[in-house]
C-alpha cells in the first residue's frame, strides 16, 4: 500500500467508528423531552465511555425543531426535542489523530414531510457523490450548484453555505495553504481534486442540508466524499 492508500484507509476507519457512535446515539439517546444541551452532554459522555473520544475537531452540533434550519455558525435559542420532532447531530470526533465528520437526522413521530426530508438528504448525498465521481475536474462551485438543484427538484431549499470541506489528519486546519480553498461553495472555482500544500491528496467531506423554511424544518447528512 502507498502512503495515500494508508491515509484513505485511516479516514475510512475513523468514519466507521463515527458511524458506530451514531448508531449508539440513535439507539440510546434520541428521545422526546431532552434539551439540545443535555443531549450534547450525553453524546460527549457516551463517546468517551464507549469509544474513547477525548477530542473533537469542531464543536458538537445538536439542532432540534426550528433550529434544524440554522447553519453551523448560527447560535439559535436552545430547544427541547418534542414528541413529533426533528433533530440532527453533527460531530467531528478524532480517532487516533484522524478526523471524522459525520452528520445524521432523526425523526421522532411519523410526520410524512419530516420523514421525506430526512430521506431526501440521504438520497441527495448518494447523488452528489456519484456526480463528483463522474466529473474528475469538478470545481467546488459546480458541486455546490448541483446540490442546490437537487434540493429544488425535491421541493426543498439548500440550507447550507457550503457543499463540502476538507478533512484529514488532525488538525487539518493548520495546513499552510489558502483556507478559502478548503470549502466547496459558490465562490470556489478551482478543481476540488489535487494536492494540498504538503503534497498530499485532498480529502473532502460532503454535507447536505435541505430546509423547508415555511414549516421550519431541516435535515442534515454528511460523511466522506472522496473515500469509499
Description of the molecule:
The structure is a single chain. The chain is of the alpha+beta class and 228 residues long. It has a single domain, classed as Alpha-Beta Complex (Creatine Amidinohydrolase), CATH 3.90.230. 35% of the residues lie in helices and 20% in strands. The protein has 4 helices and 10 strands. Strands 6, 7, 8, 9 and 10 form a 5-stranded antiparallel beta sheet that branches. Strand 9 (203-212) and strand 10 (217-224) form a beta hairpin. Helix 3 packs antiparallel against helix 4 (140-154). The longest helix is centred in the first third of the chain and has 26 residues, at 3-28. The protein is globular. It starts with a helix and ends with a strand. 39% of the residues are buried. The mean pLDDT is 95.
Short description:
The protein is an alpha+beta fold. The chain has a single domain (3-224), classed as Creatinase/methionine aminopeptidase superfamily (Creatine Amidinohydrolase), CATH 3.90.230.10. The chain has helices at residues 3-28, 36-51, 112-134, 140-154, and strands at residues 61-64, 86-91, 94-95, 98-99, 102-107, 157-158, 164-167, 183-184, 203-212, 217-224.
Amino acid at each position: 500500500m502507498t502512503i495515500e492508500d494508508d491515509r484513505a484507509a485511516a479516514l475510512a476507519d475513523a468514519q466507521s467508528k463515527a458511524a458506530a457512535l451514531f448508531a449508539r446515539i440513535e439507539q440510546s439517546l434520541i428521545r422526546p423531552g431532552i434539551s439540545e444541551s443535555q443531549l450534547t452532554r450525553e453524546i460527549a459522555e457516551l463517546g468517551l465511555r464507549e469509544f474513547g473520544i477525548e477530542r473533537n475537531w469542531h464543536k458538537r452540533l445538536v439542532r432540534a425543531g426550528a433550529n434544524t434550519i440554522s447553519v453551523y455558525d448560527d447560535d439559535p435559542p436552545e430547544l427541547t426535542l418534542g414528541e413529533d420532532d426533528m433533530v440532527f447531530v453533527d460531530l467531528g470526533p478524532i480517532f487516533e489523530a484522524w478526523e471524522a465528520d459525520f452528520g445524521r437526522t432523526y425523526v421522532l413521530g411519523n410526520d410524512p414531510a419530516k420523514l421525506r426530508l430526512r430521506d431526501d438528504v440521504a438520497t441527495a448525498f448518494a447523488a452528489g457523490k456519484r456526480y463528483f465521481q463522474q466529473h474528475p475536474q469538478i470545481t467546488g462551485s459546480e458541486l455546490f450548484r448541483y446540490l442546490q438543484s437537487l434540493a429544488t427538484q425535491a421541493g426543498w431549499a439548500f440550507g447550507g453555505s457550503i457543499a463540502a470541506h476538507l478533512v484529514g489528519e488532525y488538525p487539518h486546519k493548520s495546513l499552510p495553504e489558502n483556507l478559502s480553498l478548503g470549502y466547496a461553495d459558490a465562490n470556489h472555482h478551482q478543481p476540488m481534486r489535487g494536492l494540498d500544500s504538503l503534497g498530499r491528496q485532498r480529502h473532502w467531506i460532503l454535507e447536505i442540508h435541505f430546509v423547508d423554511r415555511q414549516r421550519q424544518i431541516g435535515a442534515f447528512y454528511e460523511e466522506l466524499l472522496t473515500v469509499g
